[in-house]
Amino acid sequence: MYEQVYEPVANNLALSTLVAVIPIVVLFALLAGVRMAAQWASLITLAVALVIAVLVYGMPIDLALNSTLLGICFGLFPIVWIVINAIFIYNVIVDTNFFDTIRDSLAGVSNDRRIQVVLIAFVFGALLEATAGFGTPVAITASLMAGLGFEALYAAALALLANTAPVAFGGFGIPILTGASVAGLDTMELSQMVGRQTPFLALIIPGMLVTVMAGFRRMLEVLPVVAVSGIAFALTQFLVSNLLGPELADLLAALITVVAVVALMSFWSPSSEWHFENEPSAEERESYETPPLGRTLYAWSPFIIIVALFLLVVARMSELVAQVQDQAAQLAALAHNDALTGIPNRRAWDLDLVREMIRARRTGAPLHVALLDVDHFKRFNDTNGHQAGDLLLKSAAAAWRAQLRDGDMLARYGGEEF
Fold first, then answer.
1. Deepest in the core among 149, 151, 279, 376, taking most CB within 10 A?
2. Coil, helix or strand at residue 337
3. How many C-beta atoms lie closer than 10 Å to residue 240's C-beta?
4. Following CA atoms 27, 28, 33, 34 in sequence, which dihedral angle do they give, to the nearest 10 degrees?
5. pLDDT tens-digit profile of 220-279?
6. d(CA 318, CA 214)
7. Contact in structure between 146 and 158 (CB atoms under 8 Å)
8. Which of 239, 233, 241 is nearest to 257 (CA)?
């Protein structure tokens, strides 16, 4: 059985790390330096990684090839599958001319650039990150803001900054699912761990966006929007990631944040609109009005349907998982209990003995083991019948069990041996 060696190069962790990072350096060099097409750069990087795994880390060739095949399959399902469907949904919205409705429903809330950057870069970017990820939200939100009048490079930088908070749960939780699978961790535990950290970023990102764009004093003028968007997103992301899992953490957080900000803007507005210095005058600027409610809901319906279907699946899966866990617990109990006497069996005894020996070795506490054997049981069983023999074993086990102290264990080790 192959076991990975973490210091294969001269038994030195630093040198081994430098060798292990070679495939990543090769990939960046080919993409950024040589400007090679991504598919060819990836294949060359894969070949380099395979050579290092086999020659440096001593990984068997068949296992290296099997690992490569597993990575390809995992890349196709679910990663590429999610991206394809996310792009499909995006194209459907664009081709049906409802993308402009989504844009207007966000931009029409306010013509103030500070509010627009929060709604589009942060909130809508998180929505796209939830459903697509992999660079899609930055590209779309940056182009959307550029179309509204933001400078293109500036819009891209703001979109990248806004993507900091939702990226951990992007693509229906792909980073969490992949990380848990590769590291052998429980997906829910990893989701909860990350979900207790990223909400702190979500709290400050809206304020950072406005501060970077307009300055701290201008940010304070729209503090209600900054606070509502940050708190709504952070709180929802925390609750969903800790209670439901990673898949809907960003999607539900983005939808709830949109509703919260729109509700706030229905009765509050900044004292003055803020725009870039190089923008045209107010009379020449294009303004956006909120589309009718029905058209807005229809435009947003693909995302709403995804959430509804996913919640139904999660609810049903939770029931099935609970049933499976209950059945597994019953099977475990049957596998470790003696059916006749109701006390632990030999398998349970062997496991518990190992644990107790480790504990005794660690603490220095004494460990006492005794073997009880019912004398002449076979003769009694042959003379009085199996039913009487079974009753004798059950009675003996019950009598001995009644005398046990806390921490003691009685197990049926064999036929009449305890």
1. 149
2. strand
3. 23
4. 20
5. 998 999 999 999 999 999 999 888 888 888 888 888 998 898 899 888 888 888 877 777
6. 46
7. no
8. 233
* Residue type present at position 222: V
Other CB atoms within 10 A of residue 333 CB: 10
**Is this model's pTM higher than 0.70 or not?**
no
Q: How far apart are CA 124 and CA 163, in angstroms?
A: 10
Give me the pLDDT at residue 49, please. Answer: 92
| Residue 304 · residue 244 · CB < 8 Å | no
Tell me 34's DSSP state: S
Structure tokens at 366: 């004494």
In this structure, the number of other CB atoms found within 10 A of the CB of residue 85 comes to 15
Query: Are 210 and 198 spatial neighbours (Cβ–Cβ below 8 Å)?
Result: no
Exposure on the CB side of residue 318, measured as CA atoms within 13 A: 10
Please say whether the beta carbons of 250 and 166 come within 8 A: yes
Among 112-116, 294-298, 368-372, the range scoring the smallest mean pLDDT is 368-372
**Separation CA 23–CA 133 (nearest Å):** 24
Look at the alpha carbons of 165, 168, 169, 170 in this order and tell me if their dihedral is positive or negative. Answer: positive
Helix ranges restricted to H, 29-169: 38-55, 61-74, 81-95, 99-107, 113-117, 125-131, 136-148, 152-162
Residue 124 Cα distances to 68, 201, 258, angstroms:
35, 17, 8
Backbone angles phi, psi at 373, to 5 degrees: -125, 125
Q: How far apart are CA 83 and CA 100, in angstroms?
A: 22
Q: Are 49 and 41 in contact (CB under 8 A)?
A: no
Using CA atoms, how far apart are residues 409 and 418, in angstroms rounded to an integer? 10
User: Please, are residues 130 and 257 in contact by the beta-carbon 8 Å criterion?
Assistant: no
User: Residue 56 gets which letter from DSSP?
Assistant: T
3-state secondary structure 268-306: CCCCCCCCCCCCCCCCCCCCCCCCCHHHHHHHHHHHHHH
